[in-house]
Amino acid sequence: MPRSVNAVASRARRKKMFKLAKGYWGARGNVLTVAKNTVEKGLGYAYRDRRTKKRNFRSLWIMRINAGAREHGMSYSELMGKIHAKGLDLNRKTLADLALNHPQAFKAVIDSVK
Fold it and tell me: Could you tell me the pTM of the whole model?
C-alpha cells in the first residue's frame, strides 16, 4: 500500500506561513523553519503591542491635558478631580483633543469646573 502524506494540507500550511512571512529579509522569507519562527515571534509582538499602544496613547493624552491645564493655573490631577466631581462626561481622548486643537473650548471646560 502506498504511503499517504496529504500533500494538499501540508502545502496549504506552508503557503499560509510564507504568506505571513512575505517581505522578510533573507531566509526569513523563504525557509520554512526560519519563516515560522519569525512569524510566530512577530505575531507575539503584535499581540503585546496592541495593548501597549493603548497605554501609550493614554499617557500622551494625560501629558496634553496637563500642559493645557497648567496654562490656566491648574494641575492635571486637580482638573480631573473637578471634572469627575461635576459629573462631566469627557474622556481623556476628547480633553486632549480640545487642549491641543481647540484651546478656547478647553478654556471653557476649565472655567466651568473652577
Answer: 0.76
